[in-house]
């Protein structure tokens, strides 16, 4: 097969990007949700209009005093330098720039470079980040040891990832375009379990959460399904169906970025989360050291999915 010339590939890269922008801008939007919109966050109005889950997450974050701070902020800085436990999220206000590019990309000297620049400063999903902050207020407080807080953080991350996947499922086919534009992290797919009852979809979300948690806990991928079937019995087919999607999580994140972040910030996490829950009489959430012993702690996941109406 003859390879396409580099010039043709670059042209396709630009045209595909412009097509994605155009497709999302064609989505009818409602002014009913103007009070929830984050100014200049790309395609926020479209997501608010399409998704009740997206609206619920935004509403709860704002109700707990959450704020958004427009700032020139690269994706790398947004993911590494923000305070994950503070109810303030910085983001790059880039919607007007993206719309300008759609209309005037043919006039730019290097449209590929412009796309790369937009991506560098617009690869940060507010939905994911605000869900972390919402969960800190809803989860029980952690215990204080390094090993325990790291398991706690991995469990919270697994729940947030499951909420990412639920958003993709709710959005359907258009989620792939939102994901390519980096405003959500995970696209949806044709999911027979979502088309079954709410009870069956809950089982699927639980399987995704458990599998993601084990991946973050660095359980060998070949062993995860066996542990899932022990922890979540009587849903073997759901567990099997959920596993490839759960393991689509970036290995660079699970094996490098996440452990390094935890090593650096685990004490900060303990201090801030325990301060947040200083008046709580609730029993701390402590995840077992042995993955095979996971069980009662999953009631916390059910509580979170109940809260989100899933």
List the helices and strands and how they pair.
Blueprint: H1 6-25, H2 44-50, H3 52-63, E1 67-70, H4 75-80, E2 88-91, H5 95-104, H6 111-120, H7 126-138, H8 146-171, H9 175-180, H10 198-216, H11 221-231, H12 236-246, H13 251-276, H14 298-307
Parallel strand pairs: 1-2
Helix pairs in contact: 1-5, 3-7, 7-8, 8-10, 8-13, 10-11, 10-12, 11-12
Structural features, described:
It contains 14 helices and two strands, in the order H-H-H-E-H-E-H-H-H-H-H-H-H-H-H-H. A two-stranded parallel ribbon has the order 1-2. It is globular and about 60 Å long.
| Strand proportion | under 5%
Class by SSE composition? mainly alpha
Average pLDDT taken over every residue:
92
Helices and strands, in order, run as HHHEHEHHHHHHHHHH
Number of strands: 2
Count of discrete structural domains: 2
Rounded to the nearest angstrom, the distance between the terminal CA atoms is: 47 Å
Helix content: 55-70%
What characterizes the major β-sheet? 2 strands, parallel
- Gross geometry: globular
Low-confidence stretches: none
State Rg. Answer: 20 Å
Q: How many individual helices?
A: 14
Strand neighbour order, sheet with most strands: 1-2
